[in-house]
Structures are given as C-alpha cells and as structure tokens.
Amino acid sequence: GENERAFVVHSLPRRNKTSRLFKSDEFVCATSEESKKWVKAINSFLICGNIDGKSFSVKYYSLIYSHKFFTHGIEESPKRKKILFLVNPFSGTKKAVNIFQTQVEPVLKVSVVDYHVVYTERPMHAAEYVQEIPVGEFDAIVTVSGDGLVHEVLNGLMRRADWKDAIKIPLGTIPGGTGNGLAMQMNGTLEQLSCLLSVLKH
Questions:
Q1: CA 90, CA 107: separation in Å to the nearest integer?
Q2: What is the dihedral of CA 48, 51, 55, 61, to 10 degrees?
Q3: Reduced to 3 states, what is the DSSP secondary structure of residue 181?
Q4: Contact 135, 167 (CB under 8 A)
Q5: How far apart are CA 138 and CA 188, in angstroms?
Q6: How distant, in Å, are the alpha carbons of 48, 94, 154, 194, 202 from that of 45?
Q7: Choice among 25, 52, 139, 147 that is catalytic
Q8: What is the pLDDT of residues 164-200, one digit of tens each?
Q9: Annotation marks residue 165 as catalytic
C-alpha cells in the first residue's frame, strides 16, 4: 500500500535569519524497496556523514531524521549517539521545562539520536549526577538552563577521579535561563532550535 512506499523527512530549516522551524515532509516512492533505500541513505548520511562510503558535509544541513510510516526507522541503522539532557526547572524565568518539552523533545523524538533527560531537583543535583555516570555512557551532555548549570556540570566532571577523561565529554547548552552568555558564545545564537541543531550536528 501507499504507507509502505511513503517516508517522512524531518528538518529544521531557517524561518528567517534568526530563527528556525520544525518541519515534516512526506514523500511517496514508486515501490516500498525504493522508499527503504531512501530512508537508509538519508539516515546513514545524518549519522555517519556518508552514503556508501562517500562523505558529505553536514555542518549546515537542516535534515534531522527520516523514517517510514510503517516501521518508524530502518533496521541496519548505524550506531546512534546518546545524549544526556539536564533540565533545570528553577533557572531564571523558570521556562526551561517548557522549552525542553515543547521545542526540544519533539525534535529529539524524530531525530537520529537517543537521549536521556534528568530534571534537576536541587542545587548541585547536576554536578552529583555527572560525577556518577560512567565515562562512555553518553556521547554528549547538554544543559537546558542558564549559564549556572553549565558551570555546575563542569565542576561535577572536574571532581571525578577520572576527570581527565570525563572532561572530554562534549558539552552543549540550550538557553533556558536569564543569563545565557555561554549559550551565545557556544552556539552563536540564543534561538533554541538553532542551538539544538548545533547539538545534533556535533
């Protein structure tokens, strides 16, 4: 049927010079096999940066995932990155949870990454959490908060006995507080979807 020949491509194209939008486009192929080939190629491109060994630059690409309606993904997919998200409900304007749940998580659910989210419950919760996680469990750590949570995470990593290895875990941030200078320096923007795209591409 048509569902077996259809697939969806999710992307974060620019709305204008300063913001992006979350977009989903449906494509229908002549056959289900052709549809599978497209999905496999697109996801290989997004995860590995290559298709059948041929490399492509993904630095400015807005695609984030492609899936079939009836399988929600392709078997044989390359290893997906796993990202830890630390969300501070108490930061600044107290909008971090809403930002994560309404802007960040809908994209993550259709992206080529796996993720785990922790909502911090008290001061130093994030520091304590990152002190305990095994190195290698996550490919990156991302805060959704103001600058303070970034510093807290760095302090937690530096307190580990294996800090020389732990500090190599890539750290990203999506602005969700009142002081977001670090997010601006790290991402070049304070627009949440653009920051998220930067996280997904690195």
A1: 23
A2: -70
A3: helix
A4: no
A5: 24
A6: 6, 37, 32, 20, 14
A7: 147
A8: 999 999 999 999 877 788 888 888 888 898 888 888 8
A9: no
